[in-house]
Design brief:
Layout: H1 3-33, H2 40-48, H3 52-77, H4 85-102, H5 107-136, H6 140-158, E1 166-168, E2 171-173, E3 186-187, E4 193-194, H7 198-214, H8 216-226, H9 228-233, H10 238-255, H11 258-265, H12 276-286, H13 291-307, H14 320-373
Helix pairs in contact: 1-14, 2-13, 3-7, 3-10, 3-12, 3-13, 4-5, 4-6, 4-10, 4-12, 5-6, 5-10, 7-8, 12-13, 12-14
Length: 374
């Protein structure tokens, strides 16, 4: 590996490593301040990661986080902040659940129908913010925040018994989906089942990398995110790219709830996970918008979620995991900026050294020419 490549890898890894180290240290300080052992909670959670049933739970939860983080990352690569991933995720899952409960087709048709429903719902909801941005200049941050609130109200409305709601005790649901829309899991014996759509999450990560790094569209999207004016000068329509990025981001967000919907709950209810879209923001940041980095970050987040309940049985508050997640997000912002500045200084010193070396070489050549001329 060339020196430049090693340095690039170092810069890519340094940010997350520093952020995690800082987050662990700050979490330990919080524990010490509250009079608790600063090491034992992490040891307990690490011990939980060794149990096969917890590992299955972590992988399943990570699949939701991974897809949501990819949706956020698409926006980040276009220099867009799609905060509406959570609303797009919830609406996409609910509409898929409604269609799955009312349409009964063969599995070969039912499954693609549910996937398409989720994608189109999420894309439609994010597309509203995209259209507002390119036509009226409305910030996607403001638009998506408001759309999240509207999505919540819309879901409550659709839960009404005279719309799509089905009451099961005190729980509001959309009714059970037909079995042709269920995705069988990967049987892990006594540990449980891994969601079948974990495979979809992996395929989406591969597709994300290929599209962004091996296609003209991906190049145009990254160029537009880096500089709209430069992209426009090369013939790229920045507004079209903004709208396209928002649509793709929303479409991915709509898929985020399907692993658990089609592999476990088979209905959208009050018990369905919430806040997944917001967690995706921190995961995408920690993973540096890289599909591999996001995968590790999603597994880390899922581990904190699924291993932390054990703390309640040992006199610790499981909320330490939430504190850690928040500290990681804060540390990521600071550490990435510090690493970026360090990288820039190293580049400047290297360029300066190369210029100085070129100047000395040029002076030497001139001296040789003078001697030869005499």
């Amino acid at each position: 590996m060339k020196k430049f490549d090693k340095e690039r890898v170092l810069l890519a890894v340094a940010g997350p490593v520093i952020a995690l180290a800082v987050a662990f240290v700050l979490s330990a300080i919080v524990l010490i301040a509250s009079g608790k052992n600063p090491v034992e909670p992490f040891a307990l959670m690490l011990e939980q990661a060794g149990f096969s049933d917890i590992q299955v739970l972590i992988v399943n939860q990570a699949s939701l986080y991974y897809i949501a983080a990819l949706a956020v990352a698409i926006g980040f690569r276009m220099n867009l902040f799609n905060i509406g991933v959570d609303g797009q995720y919830q609406l996409g899952a609910m509409m898929a659940a409604v269609v799955g409960a009312h349409a009964s087709l063969p599995a070969a048709l039912q499954v693609p129908l549910l996937l398409l429903t989720a994608v189109l719902t999420g894309a439609f909801w994010s597309g509203i913010a995209g259209v507002l941005k390119v036509t009226r200049g409305v910030s996607e941050v403001v638009a998506t925040i408001m759309l999240n609130a509207i999505a919540t109200s819309l879901i409550v409305y659709m839960w009404k018994p005279d719309v799509f709601g089905v009451k099961v005790g005190n729980n509001s649901t959309t009714g059970e989906m037909h079995e042709s829309g269920w995705i069988p899991g990967i049987d892990m014996g006594a540990a449980g089942e891994i969601y079948g759509l974990v495979i979809l999450a992996a395929l989406l990560g591969i597709g994300y990398w290929i599209v962004l790094n091996r296609t003209r569209f991906g190049f145009d999207l990254r160029a537009s995110g880096a500089s709209e004016s430069a992209a426009a000068a090369s013939g790229v329509d920045p507004k079209r790219m903004v709208l396209t990025a928002m649509l793709i981001s929303g479409g991915l967000a709509g898929l985020a709830g399907l692993p658990i919907l089609m592999g476990d709950t088979h209905t959208y209810s009050l018990n369905f996970p919430t806040g997944v879209g917001f967690l995706g923001i921190g995961i995408a940041l920690l993973g540096r918008n890289s599909p591999v980095g996001i995968a590790f970050a999603a597994l880390l987040w899922a581990w904190l979620d699924k291993a932390s309940p054990e703390l309640d049985y040992h006199g610790f508050d499981k909320e330490i995991a939430v504190i850690m997640q928040g500290l990681i997000v804060l540390s990521v912002v600071v550490s990435y900026e510090a690493v970026r500045e360090w990288g820039l200084r190293r580049q400047q010193r290297r360029v300066g050294a190369e210029l100085a070396a070129g100047h000395v070489l040029g002076a030497t050549d001139n001296s040789k020419k003078e001697v030869a001329g005499r």
